[in-house]
Amino acid sequence: MTAQVGSAGRRLSLVTVDQILSSLSNIAALIWVAHAFDPVDFGRFSLVVMVYTVAQVVFRSLISTTALVHPEDADTRPGAILASTVVLGVASGVLCVAAGFALVAADSALGGPIVVFGLAVPFLVLHDVGRYLAISRQRPGGAVTLDALWFVLLAVGLVGTQQLGLDSLTWLIAAWTGSGVIASLWVFAQCGAPTAGGLAWLRERWDFSWRSMVGGLAASGTALVTASLMALFSSPIAVAAFRAATLLGAPSTAVQLAVGTAAAADIARERDDPRAVWRHVRRAILIATVVAVVNLVVLVFLPDVIGHALLGEAWDIVEPLMLALSLKVLLMAAQSGLRASLIGTHRIQAAMVTDVVAIVLVGACMVVGAAWGDAEGALWAMAVGTGVSTVCWWIAVIWKGRGPLPELPAAPATDERGEHDEQDEPPVPVKVAPGRHRA
Protein backbone atom coordinates (compact mmCIF):
# COMPACT_ATOMS: atom_id res chain seq x y z
CA MET A 1 0.00 0.00 0.00
CA THR A 2 2.84 2.40 0.89
CA ALA A 3 4.48 1.72 -2.47
CA GLN A 4 1.19 2.43 -4.28
CA VAL A 5 0.71 5.70 -2.42
CA GLY A 6 4.30 6.71 -3.16
CA SER A 7 3.88 5.88 -6.85
CA ALA A 8 0.64 7.88 -7.00
CA GLY A 9 2.39 10.79 -5.30
CA ARG A 10 5.20 10.76 -7.86
CA ARG A 11 2.70 10.66 -10.72
CA LEU A 12 0.78 13.57 -9.21
CA SER A 13 3.99 15.58 -8.84
CA LEU A 14 4.87 15.02 -12.49
CA VAL A 15 1.33 15.86 -13.64
CA THR A 16 1.50 19.08 -11.60
CA VAL A 17 4.85 20.00 -13.18
CA ASP A 18 3.35 19.26 -16.60
CA GLN A 19 0.29 21.47 -16.07
CA ILE A 20 2.46 24.33 -14.84
CA LEU A 21 4.74 23.98 -17.87
CA SER A 22 1.69 23.89 -20.14
CA SER A 23 0.32 27.13 -18.72
CA LEU A 24 3.75 28.77 -18.78
CA SER A 25 3.94 28.60 -22.58
CA ASN A 26 0.79 30.69 -22.93
CA ILE A 27 1.66 32.99 -20.01
CA ALA A 28 5.17 33.62 -21.36
CA ALA A 29 3.77 34.55 -24.78
CA LEU A 30 1.17 36.86 -23.19
CA ILE A 31 3.78 38.62 -21.06
CA TRP A 32 6.05 38.97 -24.09
CA VAL A 33 3.22 40.60 -26.08
CA ALA A 34 2.30 42.86 -23.16
CA HIS A 35 5.83 44.28 -23.08
CA ALA A 36 6.77 44.19 -26.79
CA PHE A 37 3.50 45.27 -28.47
CA ASP A 38 0.92 47.98 -28.01
CA PRO A 39 -2.38 47.31 -26.18
CA VAL A 40 -4.29 46.78 -29.45
CA ASP A 41 -2.02 43.91 -30.49
CA PHE A 42 -2.21 42.53 -26.96
CA GLY A 43 -5.97 42.42 -27.35
CA ARG A 44 -5.69 40.69 -30.74
CA PHE A 45 -3.29 38.10 -29.36
CA SER A 46 -5.67 37.50 -26.45
CA LEU A 47 -8.43 36.75 -28.97
CA VAL A 48 -6.23 34.19 -30.76
CA VAL A 49 -5.41 32.59 -27.40
CA MET A 50 -9.14 32.48 -26.64
CA VAL A 51 -9.79 30.64 -29.93
CA TYR A 52 -7.03 28.18 -29.03
CA THR A 53 -8.54 27.72 -25.57
CA VAL A 54 -11.93 26.84 -27.04
CA ALA A 55 -10.34 24.34 -29.48
CA GLN A 56 -8.37 22.86 -26.60
CA VAL A 57 -11.53 22.45 -24.52
CA VAL A 58 -13.31 20.65 -27.38
CA PHE A 59 -10.47 18.17 -27.92
CA ARG A 60 -9.88 17.64 -24.22
CA SER A 61 -13.56 16.93 -23.70
CA LEU A 62 -14.07 14.71 -26.73
CA ILE A 63 -10.78 12.82 -26.79
CA SER A 64 -8.41 13.51 -23.88
CA THR A 65 -10.91 13.08 -21.03
CA THR A 66 -12.43 10.04 -22.72
CA ALA A 67 -9.00 8.42 -23.05
CA LEU A 68 -8.20 9.39 -19.47
CA VAL A 69 -11.13 7.46 -18.02
CA HIS A 70 -10.77 4.55 -20.46
CA PRO A 71 -7.20 3.55 -19.57
CA GLU A 72 -7.65 0.23 -21.36
CA ASP A 73 -7.85 2.18 -24.64
CA ALA A 74 -4.87 4.37 -23.82
CA ASP A 75 -2.83 1.29 -22.94
CA THR A 76 -3.65 -0.86 -25.96
CA ARG A 77 -5.00 1.45 -28.70
CA PRO A 78 -3.14 4.79 -28.63
CA GLY A 79 -2.91 4.76 -32.43
CA ALA A 80 -6.71 4.68 -32.76
CA ILE A 81 -7.02 7.64 -30.38
CA LEU A 82 -4.41 9.59 -32.36
CA ALA A 83 -6.24 8.77 -35.61
CA SER A 84 -9.43 10.41 -34.31
CA THR A 85 -7.36 13.37 -33.12
CA VAL A 86 -5.71 13.88 -36.51
CA VAL A 87 -9.00 13.74 -38.45
CA LEU A 88 -10.74 16.26 -36.17
CA GLY A 89 -7.60 18.40 -35.95
CA VAL A 90 -7.33 18.74 -39.72
CA ALA A 91 -11.03 19.63 -39.95
CA SER A 92 -10.60 22.30 -37.26
CA GLY A 93 -7.53 23.68 -38.99
CA VAL A 94 -9.39 24.03 -42.31
CA LEU A 95 -12.17 25.99 -40.58
CA CYS A 96 -9.67 28.33 -38.90
CA VAL A 97 -7.73 28.93 -42.14
CA ALA A 98 -10.97 29.67 -44.01
CA ALA A 99 -11.98 32.15 -41.28
CA GLY A 100 -8.53 33.72 -41.45
CA PHE A 101 -8.72 34.27 -45.22
CA ALA A 102 -12.18 35.78 -44.79
CA LEU A 103 -10.68 38.23 -42.31
CA VAL A 104 -7.83 38.98 -44.72
CA ALA A 105 -10.39 39.72 -47.45
CA ALA A 106 -12.14 42.06 -45.00
CA ASP A 107 -8.78 43.81 -44.42
CA SER A 108 -8.73 42.79 -40.75
CA ALA A 109 -5.45 42.82 -38.86
CA LEU A 110 -6.46 39.48 -37.32
CA GLY A 111 -6.52 37.70 -40.69
CA GLY A 112 -2.82 36.79 -40.93
CA PRO A 113 -2.51 35.61 -37.32
CA ILE A 114 -5.64 33.43 -37.64
CA VAL A 115 -4.36 31.82 -40.87
CA VAL A 116 -1.04 30.97 -39.22
CA PHE A 117 -2.84 29.65 -36.16
CA GLY A 118 -5.17 27.53 -38.33
CA LEU A 119 -2.25 25.87 -40.09
CA ALA A 120 -0.85 24.84 -36.70
CA VAL A 121 -4.11 23.69 -35.06
CA PRO A 122 -3.87 19.99 -36.04
CA PHE A 123 -0.45 19.76 -34.40
CA LEU A 124 -1.34 21.81 -31.33
CA VAL A 125 -4.33 19.59 -30.46
CA LEU A 126 -2.19 16.51 -31.17
CA HIS A 127 0.33 17.84 -28.64
CA ASP A 128 -2.38 18.28 -26.00
CA VAL A 129 -3.93 14.84 -26.58
CA GLY A 130 -0.44 13.31 -26.41
CA ARG A 131 0.01 14.81 -22.96
CA TYR A 132 -3.21 13.26 -21.68
CA LEU A 133 -2.39 9.91 -23.25
CA ALA A 134 0.87 9.88 -21.31
CA ILE A 135 -0.99 10.68 -18.07
CA SER A 136 -3.66 8.04 -18.74
CA ARG A 137 -0.96 5.44 -19.40
CA GLN A 138 0.62 6.39 -16.04
CA ARG A 139 3.67 7.82 -17.78
CA PRO A 140 3.36 11.52 -16.88
CA GLY A 141 7.04 12.03 -17.58
CA GLY A 142 6.10 11.87 -21.25
CA ALA A 143 3.69 14.79 -20.77
CA VAL A 144 6.41 16.79 -19.01
CA THR A 145 8.75 16.11 -21.94
CA LEU A 146 6.19 17.39 -24.46
CA ASP A 147 5.54 20.63 -22.56
CA ALA A 148 9.21 21.20 -21.76
CA LEU A 149 10.00 20.88 -25.48
CA TRP A 150 7.35 23.46 -26.36
CA PHE A 151 8.54 25.88 -23.68
CA VAL A 152 12.21 25.68 -24.68
CA LEU A 153 11.42 25.98 -28.39
CA LEU A 154 9.10 28.93 -27.66
CA ALA A 155 11.91 30.78 -25.91
CA VAL A 156 14.16 30.18 -28.90
CA GLY A 157 11.42 31.31 -31.28
CA LEU A 158 10.62 34.52 -29.41
CA VAL A 159 14.25 35.55 -29.11
CA GLY A 160 14.85 34.59 -32.75
CA THR A 161 12.02 36.75 -34.09
CA GLN A 162 13.29 39.68 -32.03
CA GLN A 163 16.86 39.29 -33.26
CA LEU A 164 15.69 39.08 -36.89
CA GLY A 165 13.46 42.12 -36.52
CA LEU A 166 10.28 40.15 -37.20
CA ASP A 167 8.18 42.24 -34.87
CA SER A 168 4.68 41.79 -36.32
CA LEU A 169 1.90 39.95 -34.49
CA THR A 170 1.75 37.37 -37.29
CA TRP A 171 5.40 36.43 -36.75
CA LEU A 172 4.87 36.21 -33.01
CA ILE A 173 1.95 33.83 -33.58
CA ALA A 174 4.22 31.84 -35.91
CA ALA A 175 6.88 31.56 -33.20
CA TRP A 176 4.33 30.54 -30.57
CA THR A 177 2.50 27.96 -32.67
CA GLY A 178 5.56 26.82 -34.64
CA SER A 179 7.34 25.77 -31.47
CA GLY A 180 4.24 23.78 -30.52
CA VAL A 181 4.15 22.12 -33.95
CA ILE A 182 7.73 20.89 -33.64
CA ALA A 183 7.16 19.70 -30.06
CA SER A 184 4.02 17.79 -31.10
CA LEU A 185 6.02 15.47 -33.36
CA TRP A 186 7.41 13.82 -30.22
CA VAL A 187 3.91 12.39 -29.60
CA PHE A 188 4.59 9.87 -32.39
CA ALA A 189 7.81 8.81 -30.69
CA GLN A 190 5.89 8.18 -27.45
CA CYS A 191 2.66 6.65 -28.76
CA GLY A 192 3.41 5.47 -32.28
CA ALA A 193 1.75 6.51 -35.53
CA PRO A 194 -2.02 6.88 -35.96
CA THR A 195 -3.68 3.68 -37.13
CA ALA A 196 -6.22 3.29 -39.91
CA GLY A 197 -9.86 3.83 -39.07
CA GLY A 198 -10.17 7.60 -38.72
CA LEU A 199 -12.96 8.39 -36.26
CA ALA A 200 -13.73 4.75 -35.42
CA TRP A 201 -12.48 5.03 -31.83
CA LEU A 202 -14.44 8.22 -31.19
CA ARG A 203 -17.62 6.62 -32.52
CA GLU A 204 -17.15 3.70 -30.12
CA ARG A 205 -16.85 6.04 -27.14
CA TRP A 206 -19.36 8.63 -28.34
CA ASP A 207 -21.85 7.94 -25.54
CA PHE A 208 -19.29 9.28 -23.06
CA SER A 209 -17.58 11.83 -25.33
CA TRP A 210 -20.58 13.93 -26.30
CA ARG A 211 -21.59 14.43 -22.68
CA SER A 212 -18.03 15.37 -21.81
CA MET A 213 -18.01 17.87 -24.70
CA VAL A 214 -21.27 19.50 -23.59
CA GLY A 215 -19.82 20.09 -20.13
CA GLY A 216 -16.58 21.46 -21.56
CA LEU A 217 -18.24 23.71 -24.10
CA ALA A 218 -20.63 25.01 -21.45
CA ALA A 219 -17.58 26.28 -19.57
CA SER A 220 -15.71 27.78 -22.53
CA GLY A 221 -18.81 29.03 -24.33
CA THR A 222 -20.15 30.72 -21.22
CA ALA A 223 -16.73 32.29 -20.66
CA LEU A 224 -16.82 33.81 -24.16
CA VAL A 225 -20.39 35.08 -23.76
CA THR A 226 -19.82 36.57 -20.31
CA ALA A 227 -16.57 38.20 -21.43
CA SER A 228 -18.48 39.81 -24.32
CA LEU A 229 -21.28 40.96 -22.03
CA MET A 230 -18.75 42.31 -19.57
CA ALA A 231 -17.30 44.44 -22.38
CA LEU A 232 -20.77 45.96 -22.88
CA PHE A 233 -21.23 46.86 -19.21
CA SER A 234 -17.65 47.84 -18.34
CA SER A 235 -14.86 49.97 -19.73
CA PRO A 236 -12.07 48.47 -21.88
CA ILE A 237 -9.63 49.19 -19.03
CA ALA A 238 -11.79 47.18 -16.63
CA VAL A 239 -11.91 44.25 -19.07
CA ALA A 240 -8.11 44.37 -19.48
CA ALA A 241 -7.67 44.50 -15.71
CA PHE A 242 -9.94 41.48 -15.29
CA ARG A 243 -7.97 39.44 -17.83
CA ALA A 244 -4.63 40.46 -16.30
CA ALA A 245 -5.84 39.49 -12.82
CA THR A 246 -7.01 36.06 -13.96
CA LEU A 247 -3.60 35.61 -15.63
CA LEU A 248 -1.90 35.94 -12.24
CA GLY A 249 -4.13 33.21 -10.86
CA ALA A 250 -3.18 30.81 -13.66
CA PRO A 251 -0.41 28.95 -11.76
CA SER A 252 -2.84 28.02 -8.96
CA THR A 253 -5.57 26.96 -11.36
CA ALA A 254 -2.94 24.92 -13.24
CA VAL A 255 -2.23 22.99 -10.03
CA GLN A 256 -5.96 22.46 -9.48
CA LEU A 257 -6.28 21.12 -13.03
CA ALA A 258 -3.27 18.87 -12.40
CA VAL A 259 -4.64 17.27 -9.24
CA GLY A 260 -8.04 16.83 -10.89
CA THR A 261 -6.47 15.21 -13.95
CA ALA A 262 -4.28 12.89 -11.89
CA ALA A 263 -7.24 11.97 -9.66
CA ALA A 264 -9.45 11.16 -12.68
CA ALA A 265 -6.74 8.91 -14.17
CA ASP A 266 -6.22 7.04 -10.88
CA ILE A 267 -9.95 6.77 -10.10
CA ALA A 268 -10.63 5.30 -13.55
CA ARG A 269 -8.27 2.43 -12.72
CA GLU A 270 -9.69 1.93 -9.20
CA ARG A 271 -13.33 2.83 -9.80
CA ASP A 272 -14.65 -0.28 -8.04
CA ASP A 273 -12.93 0.58 -4.74
CA PRO A 274 -14.87 3.41 -2.98
CA ARG A 275 -12.15 3.92 -0.37
CA ALA A 276 -9.56 4.43 -3.10
CA VAL A 277 -11.86 6.87 -4.91
CA TRP A 278 -12.31 9.04 -1.83
CA ARG A 279 -8.61 8.81 -1.01
CA HIS A 280 -7.84 10.40 -4.38
CA VAL A 281 -10.55 13.05 -3.90
CA ARG A 282 -9.30 14.02 -0.40
CA ARG A 283 -5.72 14.27 -1.64
CA ALA A 284 -6.78 16.50 -4.55
CA ILE A 285 -8.72 18.84 -2.25
CA LEU A 286 -5.88 19.02 0.28
CA ILE A 287 -3.20 19.85 -2.29
CA ALA A 288 -5.38 22.39 -4.12
CA THR A 289 -6.34 24.10 -0.85
CA VAL A 290 -2.73 24.42 0.32
CA VAL A 291 -1.69 25.90 -3.02
CA ALA A 292 -4.69 28.28 -2.98
CA VAL A 293 -3.76 29.55 0.48
CA VAL A 294 -0.17 30.15 -0.67
CA ASN A 295 -1.56 31.88 -3.77
CA LEU A 296 -3.68 34.17 -1.57
CA VAL A 297 -0.73 35.17 0.60
CA VAL A 298 1.56 35.78 -2.38
CA LEU A 299 -0.89 37.78 -4.51
CA VAL A 300 -2.40 39.89 -1.74
CA PHE A 301 1.02 40.85 -0.40
CA LEU A 302 2.88 40.89 -3.73
CA PRO A 303 5.37 43.79 -3.77
CA ASP A 304 4.65 46.51 -6.30
CA VAL A 305 8.08 46.11 -7.89
CA ILE A 306 7.29 42.50 -8.84
CA GLY A 307 3.79 43.44 -9.99
CA HIS A 308 5.14 46.12 -12.29
CA ALA A 309 7.81 43.74 -13.60
CA LEU A 310 5.10 41.24 -14.59
CA LEU A 311 2.37 43.50 -15.94
CA GLY A 312 3.95 46.93 -16.35
CA GLU A 313 1.57 49.86 -15.87
CA ALA A 314 -1.40 47.47 -15.82
CA TRP A 315 -0.38 46.44 -12.27
CA ASP A 316 -1.81 49.66 -10.81
CA ILE A 317 -5.34 48.74 -11.93
CA VAL A 318 -4.91 45.02 -11.16
CA GLU A 319 -3.55 45.24 -7.61
CA PRO A 320 -6.95 46.08 -5.97
CA LEU A 321 -8.40 42.87 -7.49
CA MET A 322 -5.98 40.44 -5.85
CA LEU A 323 -8.04 39.62 -2.74
CA ALA A 324 -11.20 38.83 -4.71
CA LEU A 325 -9.24 36.71 -7.19
CA SER A 326 -7.47 34.80 -4.40
CA LEU A 327 -10.75 34.03 -2.62
CA LYS A 328 -12.23 32.75 -5.88
CA VAL A 329 -9.24 30.42 -6.37
CA LEU A 330 -9.56 29.22 -2.77
CA LEU A 331 -13.25 28.39 -3.24
CA MET A 332 -12.41 26.50 -6.43
CA ALA A 333 -9.94 24.38 -4.44
CA ALA A 334 -12.83 23.03 -2.35
CA GLN A 335 -14.25 21.32 -5.46
CA SER A 336 -10.98 19.83 -6.72
CA GLY A 337 -11.33 16.12 -7.31
CA LEU A 338 -15.14 16.16 -7.22
CA ARG A 339 -15.57 16.27 -10.99
CA ALA A 340 -12.79 13.70 -11.27
CA SER A 341 -14.71 11.34 -8.99
CA LEU A 342 -17.78 11.53 -11.26
CA ILE A 343 -16.03 11.14 -14.61
CA GLY A 344 -13.55 8.58 -13.25
CA THR A 345 -16.46 6.37 -12.17
CA HIS A 346 -18.17 7.06 -15.54
CA ARG A 347 -21.02 9.10 -14.04
CA ILE A 348 -20.63 11.49 -16.96
CA GLN A 349 -24.34 12.44 -17.12
CA ALA A 350 -24.20 13.87 -13.59
CA ALA A 351 -20.91 15.62 -14.35
CA MET A 352 -22.35 17.18 -17.53
CA VAL A 353 -25.46 18.54 -15.79
CA THR A 354 -23.44 19.91 -12.87
CA ASP A 355 -20.93 21.50 -15.28
CA VAL A 356 -23.71 23.36 -17.08
CA VAL A 357 -25.50 24.50 -13.91
CA ALA A 358 -22.30 25.59 -12.18
CA ILE A 359 -20.85 27.56 -15.08
CA VAL A 360 -24.15 29.34 -15.80
CA LEU A 361 -24.30 30.42 -12.15
CA VAL A 362 -20.72 31.70 -12.23
CA GLY A 363 -21.23 33.46 -15.58
CA ALA A 364 -24.42 35.17 -14.47
CA CYS A 365 -22.74 36.38 -11.29
CA MET A 366 -19.81 37.72 -13.32
CA VAL A 367 -22.03 39.78 -15.63
CA VAL A 368 -24.09 41.20 -12.77
CA GLY A 369 -20.92 42.01 -10.83
CA ALA A 370 -19.35 43.74 -13.85
CA ALA A 371 -22.44 45.90 -14.32
CA TRP A 372 -22.35 46.75 -10.62
CA GLY A 373 -18.66 47.41 -10.08
CA ASP A 374 -16.52 46.84 -13.20
CA ALA A 375 -13.61 44.39 -12.86
CA GLU A 376 -13.62 44.38 -9.05
CA GLY A 377 -17.35 43.75 -8.94
CA ALA A 378 -17.01 40.96 -11.52
CA LEU A 379 -14.34 39.14 -9.50
CA TRP A 380 -16.18 39.45 -6.20
CA ALA A 381 -19.37 38.20 -7.85
CA MET A 382 -17.42 35.34 -9.44
CA ALA A 383 -16.16 34.38 -6.00
CA VAL A 384 -19.76 34.20 -4.77
CA GLY A 385 -20.79 32.17 -7.82
CA THR A 386 -17.83 29.83 -7.36
CA GLY A 387 -18.90 29.18 -3.78
CA VAL A 388 -22.41 28.28 -4.94
CA SER A 389 -21.01 26.04 -7.71
CA THR A 390 -18.85 24.23 -5.14
CA VAL A 391 -22.02 23.39 -3.20
CA CYS A 392 -23.56 22.08 -6.44
CA TRP A 393 -20.61 19.74 -7.02
CA TRP A 394 -20.76 18.35 -3.49
CA ILE A 395 -24.50 17.72 -3.83
CA ALA A 396 -23.96 15.94 -7.16
CA VAL A 397 -21.18 13.72 -5.77
CA ILE A 398 -23.07 12.79 -2.60
CA TRP A 399 -26.35 12.20 -4.44
CA LYS A 400 -24.99 10.16 -7.36
CA GLY A 401 -22.48 8.33 -5.20
CA ARG A 402 -25.28 6.42 -3.48
CA GLY A 403 -26.16 4.31 -6.52
CA PRO A 404 -24.32 1.41 -8.15
CA LEU A 405 -21.55 2.02 -10.63
CA PRO A 406 -22.71 2.49 -14.24
CA GLU A 407 -22.29 -0.42 -16.61
CA LEU A 408 -18.91 -0.16 -18.33
CA PRO A 409 -18.60 -1.44 -21.92
CA ALA A 410 -15.71 -3.83 -22.32
CA ALA A 411 -12.72 -2.64 -24.31
CA PRO A 412 -12.86 -3.85 -27.94
CA ALA A 413 -10.59 -6.82 -28.61
CA THR A 414 -7.18 -5.95 -29.96
CA ASP A 415 -4.66 -7.82 -32.04
CA GLU A 416 -1.04 -8.30 -31.01
CA ARG A 417 -0.18 -4.81 -32.26
CA GLY A 418 -2.87 -3.23 -30.07
CA GLU A 419 -5.14 -2.55 -33.05
CA HIS A 420 -8.88 -3.17 -33.08
CA ASP A 421 -9.99 -6.30 -34.90
CA GLU A 422 -12.93 -5.22 -37.01
CA GLN A 423 -14.29 -8.78 -37.17
CA ASP A 424 -14.64 -9.20 -33.43
CA GLU A 425 -18.05 -9.22 -31.82
CA PRO A 426 -19.44 -5.89 -30.52
CA PRO A 427 -18.37 -5.06 -26.95
CA VAL A 428 -20.54 -6.61 -24.25
CA PRO A 429 -21.41 -4.53 -21.18
CA VAL A 430 -19.76 -5.62 -17.96
CA LYS A 431 -22.40 -6.10 -15.29
CA VAL A 432 -21.83 -4.64 -11.85
CA ALA A 433 -23.71 -5.98 -8.84
CA PRO A 434 -26.31 -3.38 -7.75
CA GLY A 435 -25.53 -1.60 -4.51
CA ARG A 436 -22.17 -3.26 -4.14
CA HIS A 437 -19.90 -0.36 -4.96
CA ARG A 438 -20.21 3.22 -3.92
CA ALA A 439 -18.24 6.20 -5.17
TrEMBL record:
Q: Where is this region: Disordered?
A: 408-439
Q: How does it sit in the membrane?
A: Multi-pass membrane protein
Show the InterPro entries listed in the entry: Poly_Biosynth_Transport (IPR050833)
Query: What UniProt keywords apply to this chain's record, in alphabetical order?
Result: Cell membrane, Membrane, Transmembrane, Transmembrane helix
So where does this one cross the membrane? 12-33, 45-69, 81-104, 110-129, 141-161, 173-202, 214-234, 240-264, 285-311, 317-338, 350-372, 378-399
The places in or outside the cell where this protein is found are: Cell membrane
Q: What is this protein called?
A: Membrane protein involved in the export of O-antigen and teichoic acid
